[in-house]
Design goal:
With about 325 residues, the protein is mainly alpha-helical. About 70% of the residues lie in helices and about 0% in strands. It is built from 13 helices and no strands.
């Protein structure tokens, strides 16, 4: 998540520079052929390009709206996890007379958060973190899940026996929550909690499973590929045809001017074509980097930060003083 006031223009230009290089080449070639080699037939009707540009704008806008909605849903899921986790901590402290069991339930919950966020950061083939311009930008910030292994993190919160069992599981978060349910059943059987407390705990576990499933569904369901490909094709086609559509329009301007620019107005096709095309390609690139809210891009939902907030809150509920340090943004980016 970007925490600054705004990205700097130079940062955005560097991030999109490969598109700019390609757009410059795509605009220079038809302009040179038209002006120097007299290939006047290269100039196509501006109406055709304008219609294509309108259709492209609609599909790009649709994609960006949908990708923003995915990020918003991810933020809502983890905000709910934050809220329910605090409730879990309060119940574990106030329902139980045994501090050791309270600590066990709270530390296991932190382990559940850890396993879930590591799963959310794992790579999927459709994600964009390994695309070169995104991989380069990762030098400006830290992805906590890449800094320390899951085993090392879980070992802080689980016993050696539980850790060995959880690491063998396919869905580690689910199995940690299953351990929580098993412990609560034992507490109820031993009459350490009453039935209403047991029901409240189980209802909370059900809420956690719901939030986990929603988070996993977002992670494992990419933005529909049929819309992604049509968006890419339309943007590419528009960027290719745009300079051809501008040739005759700028050539007509020679009729109304004189002096040094007379006969040379066609050269303005290059900068204007690049600027307009860059606007479309940049919108597409922004949408692409936003569609997967957990992958580790700079605009991700900060699940590592949320997990750290929960850990600090729960340890304070336990009365612990040795709290983890709160992560600071790197170049205004925190995950």
């Amino acid at each position: 998540m970007y925490t600054g006031k705004s990205y700097k223009l130079i940062e955005f230009i560097i991030w999109t520079r490969k598109s700019i290089y390609l757009l410059v080449i795509m605009s220079i070639i038809p302009t040179v052929l038209y002006q120097y080699f007299e290939f006047k037939w290269l100039g196509i009707s501006w109406t055709v390009v304008a219609l294509l540009g309108t259709a492209t704008a609609f599909i790009v806008g649709f994609k960006n709206t949908q990708t923003y909605n995915r990020t918003l849903e991810a933020q809502q899921i983890w905000t709910q996890i934050l809220s329910t986790s605090r409730s879990w901590g309060i119940m574990s402290r106030d329902f139980l007379a045994n501090p050791e069991i309270t600590k066990l339930l709270i530390y296991r919950h932190i382990a559940w958060l850890t396993a879930l966020r590591y799963e959310m950061r794992s790579y999927r083939v459709w994600e964009t973190t390994r695309i070169k311009h995104n991989a380069e930008y990762q030098h400006y910030y830290i992805i906590p899940e890449n800094e320390i292994t899951l085993k090392e993190e879980l070992s802080k919160y689980l016993s050696a026996e539980e850790l060995e069992c959880i690491l063998k599981a396919n869905n580690k978060a689910t199995q940690i929550m299953a351990l929580q349910s098993k412990t609560l059943k034992e507490l109820y059987d031993n009459q350490e909690i009453v039935v209403l407390q047991f029901v409240d705990y189980q209802r909370t576990i059900k809420d956690f499973f719901t939030q986990q499933s929603r988070s996993e569904q977002l992670k494992d369901s990419p933005y529909p590929r049929q819309y992604a490909i049509i968006n890419t094709l339309l943007v590419q086609l528009f960027c290719i045809l745009l300079p051809f559509g501008l040739l005759k329009e700028f050539d007509k301007l020679n009729e109304s001017i004189s002096g040094i620019m007379y006969g040379n107005m066609v050269w303005f096709v290059i900068p204007f074509s690049v600027i307009i095309s860059w606007m479309y390609t940049s919108l597409g690139q922004v949408g692409e980097s936003t569609e997967n809210p957990f992958e580790g891009n700079a605009n991700d939902v900060p699940i590592s930060k949320i997990s750290k907030i929960i850990e600090i809150d729960l340890k304070e509920i336990l009365g612990e003083n040795n709290l983890p340090e709160f992560s600071q943004p790197q170049h205004n980016i925190i995950l």
